[in-house]
């Protein structure tokens, strides 16, 4: 038998063996077992004692918590961390509120008008230790300085009896009711503290104030709508800004530098051209972006230029006034295209997006070409400009079948030694019901400007009208001349009504003479 077997067979009460026997891993451990009954094992008290012994063995050191005045009490359970946190927060709130009360007392003193820090108090609703003399601001929100609203009369329409009867038509009662009803006005309409002053408004005054408040509310709404949906001077609305961003992001424009001109109907910006998506279209290095203003105020008296133009007559509608603004941009694009095909110096159309028209820039290095009224020309250059203007008016009338309708020194630029025509959105055809009137007005503006400029060869407005139109109207004075023009327009209008087509019935003595220097 080996040594291991001898050790295992030895009786338990034998003496201590060698040291190697106690350290042998296969040896029987010397443990004393505690005998207990099954009832003791199932006892809850024994289980709690065992658990307590394990906790004491794991946490031998227990830190004693100093008891303060805020955790005293027989019915308060301090074993929960949440309850301790709430009690600590409550104690802090009490001290904070006490400090606020001291500040109130220090500031107010004996003054009749006092201030209150009620909005900054932090006392919890379950705080039961607050003193009885403190005011619970959470429950008393009534303003003692606010006057009560007047009581309404009962349904029967009167109160009182005999001589003390008061009906709903009483002057004092109605006045106080009207004062109280002013609180229903818009917040922007300041009505003041009429109830506190016991103000009595008559029905006439109240109705006037009510109408004024309603008018101010509508006016505020209109101003807000105008600000959100219209272009202002040197500014664009969000929709127009989005169109410009798309042009820049698409590569059509390199960058937009700034505003170069503002007018009644549009704002003009300068931009550097980019690359075109198609090879057949060439974008100039510098472009002018004409943004037509979306405000309708400037177009109320200008519908006569477009409503009788047969190109846009079917699309013109007074029920959709904002569409007229896009039609102005489209009309200028078509007119510039006609002028460009005829060889008249004018901006080149690049693209049209709704009410934004991109054209070539007349000028250099962000400096626009000066208007004819702002430039100082020599006598030779002034004479040259006159004959060029006369030639362009004849080309515009004969080849483009257009009348500028707003031609003056303000709409003509001087660039590279010649005159350039701009702003042709209001241009109409000669068969327009007022086409000849517009042409005569253009002739008057051109004749007066060049005559004041010292051009001796400048014709007067009547001779210039005949030279441009090719008509032979012989009248001694301007009144008779305009009467014959109106008669020709009436003949044309009757012809349109009878035949339904815009065909000119003006009698002409052949093509107008072309004046050249």
TrEMBL record:
Q: Which domain of life is it from?
A: Eukaryota
Annotated coiled-coil segments of the chain: none
Q: Which keywords does this chain's UniProt record carry? A: Antiviral defense, ATP-binding, Cytoplasm, Immunity, Innate immunity, Kinase, Magnesium, Metal-binding, Nucleotide-binding, Phosphoprotein, Ribosome biogenesis, Serine/threonine-protein kinase, Transferase
Span list, region Disordered: 1-24, 125-162, 498-517
A GO biological process held by the record: ribosome biogenesis
Gene Ontology cellular component annotations, sorted alphabetically: cytoplasm
Subcellular location per UniProt equals: Cytoplasm
Identify the Pfam families for this entry: RIO1
Catalytic activity reads:
L-threonyl-[protein] + ATP = O-phospho-L-threonyl-[protein] + ADP + H(+); L-seryl-[protein] + ATP = O-phospho-L-seryl-[protein] + ADP + H(+)
What family, per the record? Belongs to the protein kinase superfamily. RIO-type Ser/Thr kinase family.
Q: What is this protein called?
A: Serine/threonine-protein kinase RIO3
Name the species this protein comes from: Neopipo cinnamomea
